[in-house]
Fold this protein.
Amino acid sequence: MMQLSWFDRLLGRTLFEVPCVVTVENTFDFLHSNVELQGVAPECGDAVQVIDAPTDVPYGKTLTCERRAQVMRGGPWDAFWGRFSAMGEFLELFDLSFTERRQL
């Protein structure tokens, strides 16, 4: 479980628990998990940790269960850094090369 340190408090982070619905699917078509927080929308810079999350789902099964999740709401610095780094990662998609085809 997460706990706030003095540095987290200095950056303006807060910590709280909310109920959530966890869906884990392990089938031929899909291998994924999804967490839906109830009553709160995650924002840029937030961290979410599910308490007692299911980890073992037999092949061919889908598991849906209710759990609790800890949400660490990021402060202003976390939101800024999240948006700034996301812009850099987004711009990597535009890595283009302008070479002439005749030289290849």
